[in-house]
Design brief:
This protein has seven helices and no strands. The two termini are 33 Å apart. Helix 1 packs antiparallel against helix 4 and helix 2 (24-38) runs antiparallel to helix 3 (42-70). The protein has two domains: 3-104, no CATH class; 109-178. By secondary structure, the protein is mostly helical.
């Protein structure tokens, strides 16, 4: 068994443990363990994870707090559990992605490697397209774009990404089906 496959198994075990544990103390201990494993990159990993979950967790936490207030319940234990679990899972995922090579971890399965290759190529295509959209907005503006201009550009880019992803998903599904990947 290679190092990357071992990291994959440890990652999957960590994900399973983080979803089965409900005590905020243990979730916090798991987060501390992940940060210790990250070493010198711990603060950067934590910052990246916090930025990734900030919008989602803020909305969910506010919604739950409002519902708990409405029903006269204490939301603090549930909010601590929810936010710690999401932060732990996100940090663990970022650490795994930084330390493991997914292609080597999945080399035991030809089908999984093929699907990973498709997903990876789409991610690279979307990354390049995102950069192209960003550069296009900058090159077509004489001064720094206003907030409304950036919103319009973001909406156009999101529409393009949605259309492109639906088209690519359809093509990928057809390609996989023609190669016998789906047994339906």
């Amino acid at each position: 068994m290679n190092r990357d496959r071992l990291l994959l198994y440890l990652y999957l075990a960590g994900i399973l443990a983080a979803t089965l544990v409900h005590d905020p103390v243990w979730l916090g201990a798991g987060l501390v363990l992940v940060l210790l494993l990250a070493g010198r990159d711990a603060w950067r990993l934590l910052r990246r994870a916090l930025l990734a979950i900030l919008a989602f967790n803020t909305l969910i936490s506010l919604g739950y707090a409002l519902m708990a207030w409405w029903q006269e319940l204490s939301p603090w234990l549930t909010l601590a559990r929810l936010n710690l679990r999401v932060l732990l899972l996100t940090s663990l995922t970022f650490l795994f992605i930084a330390r493991a090579n997914l292609f080597r971890a999945l080399d035991f399965s030809k089908g999984l490697t093929y699907v990973l290759g498709l997903a990876y190529s789409q991610a690279l295509t979307f990354r390049r397209a995102h950069e192209d959209f960003r550069l296009a907005l900058a090159s077509r503006s004489l001064r720094r774009p206003r907030l409304m201009d950036r919103y319009r550009a973001s909406a156009a880019a999101a529409s393009w990404f949605l259309e492109k992803s639906l088209h690519a998903a359809t093509q990928s599904a057809q390609a996989l089906r023609s190669r016998g990947f789906f047994h339906d």
